[in-house]
Design a protein that fits this description.
The complex is a heterodimer of chains A (116) and B (112). By secondary structure, chain A is mostly beta strands. Chain A is 0% helix and 58% strand. Chain A has no helices and twelve strands. In chain A, strands 2, 5, 6, 10, 11 and 12 form a six-stranded mixed sheet that branches. A four-stranded antiparallel sheet of chain A has the order 3-9-8-7, with no helix packed on it. Chain A starts with a strand and ends with a strand. With 112 residues, chain B is mainly beta. Chain B has no helices and eleven strands. In chain B, the strands form two sheets. In chain B, strands 2, 4, 5, 6, 9, 10 and 11 form a seven-stranded mixed sheet that branches. In chain B, strands 1-3-8-7 form a four-stranded antiparallel sheet, with no helix packed on it. The chains are: A mainly beta (116), B mainly beta (112). At the A-B interface, β5, β6 and β11 of A face β5, β9 and β10 of B.
């Protein structure tokens, strides 16, 4: 079985300050992990992915995440928040299904608010 | 480049009416295709996935069905909608050998 836990349902930061969105995972196998962002009434956009290569993963829009096996964590960070970063963020773990395809298990999401 | 299209963007339907949501992918062949539902304030739930034409796997028992009549077309249907079918429906695709899924813009379905 696999799962992800997003530790904060809401995070509020000031523009220009660092962002930290926390995620812990549970997986029986070496996991593939992702962060997706969703703006209101929009689909999900892939921010970054970890697939057993470098443990520090850089994504789009200045985001990055570090895979820490010892802590079973995959926290998302950004050095300086921008107003356009306000959105919902999902931590996701992937499992390859028998017969093909992969199943994504989503966290419950973290709503990021950026204030002036 | 690959693109994914979902329509309609919003839909309001009465209880008991039928449903057909369509998703098409361009720029890739033999993709894996997925339908998700996102209830208000919650994460995404996988409803169906397909690894090829005519091949549909259902993840949860429900009032909905899916079909894949063509390689890059994925349809979500219902014969009679329930109030509990309201939500935001997202289609996604994954390329052969790819690790990540790519999502459409979604359909907001409201049942009255």
């Amino acid at each position: 079985a696999q799962s992800v836990t997003q530790l904060d349902s809401h995070v509020s930061v000031s523009e220009g300050t660092p962002v930290l969105l926390r995620c812990n995972y549970s997986s029986s196998y070496s996991p593939s992990l992702f962060w997706y962002v969703q703006h209101p009434n929009k689909g999900l956009q892939l921010l970054l992915k970890y697939t057993s290569a470098a443990t520090l993963v850089k994504g789009i829009n200045g985001f990055e995440a570090e895979f820490k096996k010892s802590e079973t964590s995959f926290h998302l960070t950004k050095p300086s928040a921008h107003m356009s970063d306000a959105a919902e963020y999902f931590c996701v773990v992937s499992l390859i299904l028998t017969g093909g395809g992969n199943k994504l298990t989503f966290g419950t999401g973290t709503q990021l608010k950026v204030e002036l | 480049s690959q693109t994914i299209h979902q329509w309609p963007a919003t839909l309001v339907q009465p209880v008991g009416s039928p449903l057909s949501l369509e998703c098409t992918v361009e720029g890739t062949s033999n993709p894996n295709l997925y339908w998700y539902r996102q209830a208000a304030g919650r994460g995404l739930q996988l409803l169906f996935y397909s690894v090829g034409i005519g091949q549909i796997s259902s993840e949860v028992p429900q009032n909905l069905s899916a079909s894949r009549p063509q390689d890059r077309q994925f349809i979500l249907s219902s014969k009679k909608l329930l109030l509990s079918d309201s939500g935001f429906y997202l289609c996604a695709w994954r390329g052969q050998g790819g690790k990540s899924q790519h999502f459409g813009d979604g359909t907001r379905l409201s049942i009255l």
